[in-house]
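Subject: Fe(2+)-dicitrate sensor, transmembrane component structure
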Amino acid sequence: MSRPPADAPRKCSSQEDVSQDTLCPRVLEQASLWMARLWSDDATAAQREACLQWRQAAPEHERAWQQLQAIDVRLGALPRHAARSELFESSRQVSRRGLLQWGGLAVLLGSLGFGLPRTPQWQRQFADYATAVGETREVTLSDGTQLRLDTDTALDVRFDADQRRIRLLRGEVLVTTAEAPDVRPLSVVTRQGASYPIGTRFSVHQHDDSTRVLVYQGQVMLERHGSSQRMTLNAGQQGGMNAAGMTSPAPLDHAVLSRFQGRLVAERMRVAEVAETLARYRHGVVRCSAEVVDLRVSGVFSLEDTDRALASLADALSLEVVYRTSLWVTIQPRPGG
């Protein structure tokens, strides 16, 4: 039997046994090395035959090969928003073989269950619809449902004969259901659970460890993954889900809706909260000095021009905005103020 490439480990240890969803890193490394060799211009028939024998030697070998092949297909047909992705902007001239041999292995390993699918770059890169930091986007689905994606949002859409499913990977989306009746149930799925609307307009926010749902019209039923917990939210209510359970319905925060329109409406909001919100719509860091974090401000600030918003905040409270770079901003007391 032909051996794998000499520079690849031959098998996994018992601690690295593969499951149906997660492959052994060493098997993935072997598969990536075989693929890199066959992508080269000087690949021989003997190497191709040896690779085939390696794939046939164990089921996990073939599964690793097929998953890498699937990624290769996606790299060759990137969605339009991929041109904005930080993941590939700096490496457009790198060959496919170079991607695997020069740092690309980490990318591919991560994509197969080792953490990368939850990074912003990867999610925006391969989602059906996505927005970059500071960008919003409107989408009309095939059934007439309208979506408005907030900043740094990624989602997948899966419609079939039995259901309509929107999987929110990150960020926040405003959903306005279609007026035309459709017998297929519609759901928005996050890591914590699913939201089922009943003729409604609502928004769903995927936080790192929780989901928040706000209902503006109609009703939305929440169902938490891995439990029988359910909760119905009516118009004017908001609620959420996390690992511990569900949060009780609370009055709606109408200011959230204004963010989908490019505005931050602040009513006696702490400066720290204003800074945190603006930071979601720009690259880099927005910090507050200890002296200003608890100051409160009311007003309307632009989310489409965060520099102007920072300037307005500073004027309202006689503060100073210091730009160490465009990516490092500090809000602090104005000298002599």
